[in-house]
C-alpha cells in the first residue's frame, strides 16, 4: 500500500466532521444520479474495508471502516431525491451530514418489492403525481420504472392509471 493512499484515507477519516457527502464520493454538488452511483462504486472498490483485513494496523483498518461507512451514508442520501434536497438545504447552513432522523426515512412495503434503486425512485415519484391527479406525469414515471424492472407495484400503478383514464 502506497503512502498517498494512506494519506487519502487519513484525510477522509480526519474530515469526518468537516467534509461533505459530495467530497466523500469525489463529486460536485448538482451532479446527476448516475454520477452519484458511479462515484460511489468507484470509491467502494478502492476503499472497501475487506481489502484491508490483512494490511496495515488496527488504526488504519478502523479509519477505512469509518470512511467507508460515511461513503455509504453519502450514497444513500445523495441517491434519494428527497433526502438529497434536505441535505443540500442543510449543507447550505454548514452541516456536513444529514441528521439521523432525516436519514431514517423508511421505505414502504411496496417500495421494498422493487429492487432497482432508480425504479424505486420512479415508483415513489409516480405515486405522488398520481395522488395529485397528474396522470400523464405518473404514467411517465411508471413507464420509466418499468423499463428498469417489471416489479408488481409498478405494474399495479400502471393498471390504476389506465383505470383512471390513462396517459391521454
* Unreliable parts: none
What value does the average pLDDT take?
A: 88
Q: Give the amount of beta strand, in percent.
A: under 5%
Radius of gyration: 19 Å
Order of helices and strands: HHHHHHHHHH
CATH class of the largest domain: Mainly Alpha
How many extended strands? 0
CATH level-four homologous superfamily name of the largest domain: DnaJ domain
Look up the CATH topology of the largest domain.
Answer: Helix Hairpins
Structural class: mainly alpha
Query: How many structural domains in the coordinates?
Result: 2
Helix content: 55-70%
Largest sheet: none
- Mind telling me which CATH architecture of the largest domain this is? Orthogonal Bundle
By oligomeric state, this entry counts as single chain
The span between the termini is: 60 Å
Number of helices: 10
Q: Which of globular, elongated, flat, extended, rod-shaped describes the shape?
A: elongated
Amino acid at each position: 500500500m502506497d503512502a498517498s493512499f494512506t494519506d487519502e484515507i487519513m484525510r477522509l477519516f480526519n474530515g469526518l466532521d468537516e467534509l461533505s457527502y459530495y467530497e466523500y464520493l469525489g463529486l460536485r454538488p448538482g451532479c446527476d444520479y448516475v454520477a452519484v452511483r458511479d462515484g460511489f462504486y468507484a470509491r467502494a472498490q478502492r476503499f472497501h474495508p475487506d481489502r484491508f483485513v490483512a494490511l496495515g494496523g488496527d488504526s488504519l483498518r478502523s479509519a477505512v471502516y469509518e470512511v467507508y461507512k460515511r461513503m455509504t451514508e453519502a450514497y444513500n442520501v445523495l441517491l434519494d431525491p428527497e433526502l438529497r434536497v434536505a441535505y443540500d438545504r442543510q449543507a447550505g447552513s454548514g452541516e456536513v451530514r444529514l441528521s439521523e432522523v432525516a436519514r431514517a426515512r423508511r421505505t414502504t412495503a411496496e417500495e421494498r418489492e422493487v429492487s432497482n434503486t432508480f425504479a424505486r425512485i420512479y415508483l415513489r415519484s409516480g405515486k405522488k403525481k398520481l395522488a395529485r391527479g397528474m396522470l400523464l406525469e405518473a404514467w411517465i414515471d411508471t413507464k420509466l420504472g418499468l423499463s428498469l424492472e417489471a416489479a408488481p407495484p409498478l405494474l399495479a400503478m400502471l393498471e390504476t392509471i389506465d383505470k383512471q383514464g390513462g396517459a391521454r
